[in-house]
Design goal:
Distance between the termini: 114 Å
Order of helices and strands: HHHHHHHHHHHEEHHHEEEEEEEEEHEHE
Shape: flat
CATH architecture of one domain: Beta Barrel
Structural class: alpha+beta
Strand content: 5-15%
Number of strands: 13
CATH superfamily of one domain: L,D-transpeptidase catalytic domain-like
Largest sheet: 5 strands, mixed
GO molecular function: peptidoglycan L,D-transpeptidase activity; transferase activity
Helix content: 55-70%
Organism: Ktedonosporobacter rubrisoli
Number of helices: 16
Pfam families: YkuD
Keywords: Cell shape, Cell wall biogenesis/degradation, Peptidoglycan synthesis, Signal, Transferase
Strand order of the largest sheet: 5-4-3-13-6
Pathway: Cell wall biogenesis; peptidoglycan biosynthesis
CATH topology of one domain: L,D-transpeptidase catalytic domain-like
Length: about 550
């Protein structure tokens, strides 16, 4: 006896069998016809494409760059070969398939190349930004971090490596920025505590907290460390503000006095201080109102802003005056101490490194970019250092001491910058000489050739930014430029300043020492490249450059004056 459903089941089984047979027949017919080798090539090209896509994902190519390629591949996969009655049509289909897969492989390679170049450029820009930040601020504890990043950048190959490196460098940049902000906040907290010294408030707890903050600030390394400290200082500052309400009369008078002093400084510099006099009257009006916590906070906020603005104007004028003095001294001394070149009959200033092509333009840029109190303080410090270095150049020029003996100006430079316990490579622009010191003791001395007047070596105290042995220098100028040079193999190179400034061997020269930074007839006969100064580098004989390279390291400082 059969089940009432047995007939339906048999029909379903029969239908499935027919469907399977039909599908198998379709597969059989689709596999027939055409050249098997052509079909195999199409499948191989697709397999290579899939391998490329997998590799692109693995090395970190952004998904949006690969998505259009994946969609195109899916469109290709959705097509079917024609019926196998015409071999030429089938072969053409698979040939077109292979061609499309090959084109997509090219697009994947372009995405890999483009994303790698873009990520590499971003990483290089981050490294340059970090380098400038380290040069502008006192952040010596990040120098080794910078060197680590530079090594990572050199070793990186794939987009994900460059992206990770950029992210890490951005975190470091933010860390340095927050460190700078916290330094200012600690100064503000210290200033507030100083203002409250003559009040009846018990400041012992706040003073202990402030000392602890300073210790934490010195120990902090990561962004999280500085963020936690920032929150701590914020709470302590609020505590100090509340305590200040009790000493409102004393605090207000001290701050009014400070603003008054800033106004007096502005007037002494010949600046219009009328706007600050108006602000002073507004601050005095706040004091006259009924004292409350709200009034105190408004008063502190307003007068602190007024004092800070006035300080910035005072420092800005000081920086402007100092910069003008620097340029005037450079021009005046340079005009009075010209090198009269018998080779071309021209006269050249001996302090070109301090003029616009050298450190002069850097100081101008620093000043124009300085809009905050810390940056202005950094500009003034850099201007004072540049003036100090210039005065040492002037004194060194008048010193008859032989180039291979200790110079008084060298020791002054070492003591001024606290380099007594360091190894330094010191370059005298006036003497065209290099002297290597270890712990204030002279080790060796050499004659060198520094930059020509148009591209002078940059005076200052510089860390080692790179060490290359060997390398190839490639001109950043196009052929036809007076500063172009062919690709040049270099045996020993120590980078001392961004922009391609190196200490390196110059095997194409024979002559070194005084006057070789100006046009001259070099004994090598290579007048095109040896008959003038360098492009801002410090050139040396090959064996001497080898000695300097092998007897220095990443911690050596390059001192040029």
């Amino acid at each position: 006896m059969h089940s009432p459903h047995s007939g339906s089941a048999r029909r379903l089984v029969a239908r499935a069998a027919c469907t399977t047979l039909l599908f198998g027949l379709m597969l059989l017919t689709s596999a027939c016809g055409g050249d098997a080798h052509t079909q195999q090539q199409a499948h191989q090209q697709q397999a290579q494409l899939d391998q490329q896509l997998a590799q692109a994902r693995k090395i970190g190519v952004p998904a949006p760059l690969l998505e259009p390629i994946l969609q195109k591949e899916q469109q290709i996969e959705s097509t079917h070969a024609p019926l196998p009655f015409d071999d030429r049509a089938v072969n053409g289909y698979y040939q077109d398939l292979a061609s499309q897969y090959t084109q997509l492989q090219g697009q994947v390679q372009a995405a890999i190349t483009g994303s790698t170049a873009s990520a590499q450029l971003q990483a290089r820009q981050k490294l340059q930004k970090l380098s400038l930040l380290l040069a502008q601020q006192d952040t010596q504890k990040y120098v080794q971090v910078f060197q680590f990043y530079r090594a990572q950048l050199k070793a990186a190959h794939y987009p994900k490596e460059y992206v990770a490196l950029s992210s890490n460098m951005e975190t470091t940049i933010k860390t340095i920025g927050l460190q700078h902000t916290l330094s200012a906040r600690l100064q503000t907290l210290q200033h507030t505590l100083e203002q409250l010294q003559n009040t009846e408030l018990d400041l012992s707890l706040l003073q202990v907290q402030y000392q602890n903050d300073q210790q934490l600030f010195k120990q902090a390394l990561t962004l999280q460390d500085f963020q936690r400290l920032n929150g701590l200082i914020e709470a302590q500052y609020q505590q100090a503000a509340v305590g200040s309400l009790l000493a409102f009369p004393a605090v207000s008078q001290l701050r009014l006095k400070e603003l008054t002093e800033q106004i007096a400084q502005l007037k002494s510099q010949g600046l219009d201080a009328s706007s600050y006099e108006q602000r002073l009257r507004a601050d005095q009006a706040l004091i006259a109102a009924h004292p409350s916590f709200s009034h105190f906070l408004t008063f502190v906020s307003q007068i602190d802003e007024d004092i800070m603005s006035a300080r910035i104007d005072v420092l800005s004028q000081q920086a402007r005056t100092l910069l003008k003095q620097f340029h005037q001294e450079v021009e005046s001394w340079g005009n009075a101490h010209l090198y009269h070149d018998s080779y071309d009959g021209q006269a050249y200033p001996l302090d070109a490194g301090y003029m616009q092509p050298g450190i002069g333009s850097d100081l101008d840029t620093m000043f124009s970019d300085a809009t905050t109190l810390p940056r202005l303080q950094a500009v003034i410090a850099a201007e004072n250092d540049a003036l100090f270095n210039l005065h040492l150049l002037e004194a060194d020029y008048a010193d008859p001491t032989p180039y291979d003996q200790v110079h008084k100006t060298d020791l002054q430079m070492i003591d001024h910058y606290n380099l007594q316990k360091r190894k330094i490579v010191l370059v005298s622009l006036a003497e065209q000489a290099m002297r290597v010191y270890q712990d204030r003791q002279l080790v060796r001395a050499f004659h060198v050739t520094t930059g020509r007047v148009e591209l002078p070596a940059v005076p200052g105290v510089w860390p080692v930014l790179n060490r290359l042995a060997p390398t190839v220098f490639r001109s950043s100028e196009p052929p036809g430029s007076p500063y172009w040079y062919p690709d040049t193999p270099i045996n020993y190179a120590i980078m001392y300043h961004q922009g391609g400034y190196f200490i390196h061997d110059s095997w194409w020269r024979d002559d070194y020492g005084p006057g070789t930074q100006f046009p001259h007839a070099d004994a090598s006969g290579n007048q095109a490249f040896a008959g003038n100064g360098s492009h801002g580098c410090v050139n040396m004989q090959e064996d001497e450059a080898a000695w300097v390279y092998n007897n220095s390291d990443w911690n050596t400082l390059i001192v040029i004056y």
